[in-house]
Model the fold of this input.
Amino acid sequence: MDKALYLAMSGGVQTMNAQTIHANNLANVSTTGFRADFEQARSMQVYGESMPSRVYAMTENPATRYTTGDMIQTDRNLDIAVAGEGFITVYDELGQEAYTRAGDLQINAAGQLVTGTGLPVAGVEGPIFLPPVDRITITPDGSISIVPQGGAANEVAVLNQIKLVNPDPQDIRKKEDGLIHAKDGQPFEADLNVKVASGFLEGSNVNAVEEMTHIMNLARRFEMNVKMMDSIRENANSSARILQRS
Done:
């Protein structure tokens, strides 16, 4: 009896974990450059001092969907979208290189080029700092050219180049911070073939209809697990009553 109860209970817990993955995808349907996560369930044996006779369900996040999202035109000079495959390199909270498709760039109070969430953008020559400017242009190869504040229109200076990479999807993974990281922790080399489009942002690649369908299916699965636990409890109570009468 306890085997069936454990199976139903673990199934319900893992169904809730799967719901969390799809709910997070749906919540980020409008997040710039967001990449949807997949989920899958498989059975796992319970190992311990006795024989592994019990199994439980386990939800996994096996991969991330790396297909491109829709291109949204903004006509803002600091908005860029990666055209095709590739990533923009940033520094995470630990100062390590990480990768993103979110190109809603800004210049903070210190004159540093950062993402919309405040992460420093990495250049091929390190962090990117800009002086006061009248105009800034980001070319398809990620080069940043400016007209200094008070300068003539023809006084164009190239300051740095955004580091663009294109790693193999097998070598990267998405972590809880929402950024893409190298599996071995080593930074990737810049790829000159990766291009960006200035004045555009890339939307999320989440399919809202697909995510809603998954959420509804998982809700029915959770209800089935709860009903199974109720049936097991009723059977246990019936068995106890039979034993009491005998």
In short: The chain has two domains: 2-65+206-245, 71-202.
